Amino acid sequence: MEHLTAVGYAYVSYALEHPHHYRLMFSDFQWGSGVYPDLDYWSERAFQVLLDAIDRGIRSGVFRQVEAQSLALVAWSLVHGQALLAIDRRISFASERELKDFLSFSAQMLMTGISQNQSDPLPPVHQRQNICPAINCDRGG
């Protein structure tokens, strides 16, 4: 879990330190179009870091035995939303410590939901051809 929290912290910290770059990264630009192969490459690499962390958790028995891509997308959605809310000043943090505490709390809540030690069954995940069409996340899951 510490690794997953660190990945989330790095993601949100980057967004807060470079809000204009962060917004550009998620603008109407069509990822995977081949127009900017370097951007496509680094986008895939960034997502792969998260996907690898999730996959390790599944293989080690810490996370539920579900599709890694689905869990990675849930985790990404969580930190992406937090980053945008912070950039737009919808949530604010008085200090770096407060940001870390909030992200740690969020990661703990996510971990509670995805941990292997749950008695509640998960709802079925509707499979899609590519859960994240903007980048090729089929490589690691």
Please tag this protein with its features:
141 residues, mainly alpha, 5 helices, 60% helix
Q: What percent of the residues sit in helical stretches (DSSP H or I)?
A: 55-70%
Name the poorly predicted regions.
126-137
DSSP strand tally: 0
Determine the mean pLDDT. Answer: 79
DSSP strand content: under 5%
Structural class: mainly alpha
How are helices and strands ordered from N to C? Answer: HHHHH
Question: What coarse outline follows from CA principal-axis ratios?
Answer: flat
Query: Helix segment count?
Result: 5
When the domains are counted, the total is 1
Distance between the termini: 18 Å
Radius of gyration: 16 Å
How does the major sheet shape up? Answer: none
Q: What report would you give on this structure?
A:
The protein has 141 residues and is mostly helical. The protein has one domain (2-28, 37-114). Helices cover 60% and strands 0% of the residues. It is built from five helices and no strands. The chain has helices at residues 2-17, 19-25, 37-59, 68-87, 96-114. Helix 3 crosses helix 4. The two termini are 18 Å apart.
What's the helix and strand layout?
Layout: H1 2-17, H2 19-25, H3 37-59, H4 68-87, H5 96-114
Helix pairs in contact: 1-2, 1-4, 1-5, 3-4, 4-5
Question: What does this entry show, briefly?
Answer:
This protein is an all-alpha fold and 141 residues long. The protein has five helices and no strands.
